[in-house]
Amino acid sequence: MKVIDTHCDALLKLQTAKLQHRNLDFRHAPEIETNLQRLEAGNVKVQFFAIFVNPEKIAATDQWKHAQEQAAIFHEEIIAKNEHVTFIRDWKDIHTLAPGEIGAVLTLEGAEAIGNDIEKLRTLYQMGVKSVGLTWNPANLCADGAEEPRGAGLTRLGKEVVRLNNANDVLTDVSHLSVKAFWDVMELAAYPVASHSNVRAICDHPRNLYDNQLQALIAKKAPIHLALYPVFLKQDAETATVADLCKHIDHICALGGEKNIGFGSDFDGISHYIDHVTDASGYAYLLNELQKHYSEEQVRGFAYQNFMHLFPG
């Protein structure tokens, strides 16, 4: 059974190693949870790779350079060196992947790198970015993030970014937004997505979504992709099981969102894991376990088909 995973942080890991003069081979480096070998073992058909520049560690003057470096790593280390990895330039490219090919989608997590320069966003589109999350956890010039105490919504710049996303068939990711910014995005976005968020009614974490937020995504036929991160799955826990993930799936299904559910693992950005699901190869175990709770058709939807029916194009 194939998988579409809408979030990982492999680019940051590869960049960090490069800056430390260490060479990590994307094909099989054990440090990379979404390396090619593991993606193949987990039958991941499409993997989204996030450009992420940590605003708490990288000075504002260096953020654009760091984002460009990660985009270059995506093209040079993941695409150019692996003939079976196909760059998804247009959403329709997902439909034409050959057997044995893995689609790679470039995304942006947090708009810090563009500052207030909208032309930098256009440059990212040209580099292939197909999904944009306006914030990480703090505030920036576009919006407040999920852990910004002020809890404000989108700025004028943030609204311009969403409109440009719409015009370019680019997803607008709500996963790290404040509640107010989430609602501002939902009012404007043609293609909203929650790339790696879970259910706040089950696990009260600021990165998770309230029921009315989930219902708004369902009403707009937007993908809701669950993170495989125990901290977002179970209150005050560092470990979790597939049964804990099922509670989130069941809750979204009860809200009418069975056809919206997918996975955005957050691999390479997390340090705790669901039992037996510690990297991309763990999808084989995960999907097998899910079929003990749901029909094969339902699990196929969660794994792959739901996104195929909802994404632009």
From TrEMBL:
UniProt xrefs under InterPro entries: Metal_Hydrolase, Pept_M19
CDD domains, A to Z: rDP_like
SUPFAM superfamilies: Metallo-dependent hydrolases (SSF51556)
Domain of life, per lineage: Bacteria
Annotated protein name in UniProt: Dipeptidase
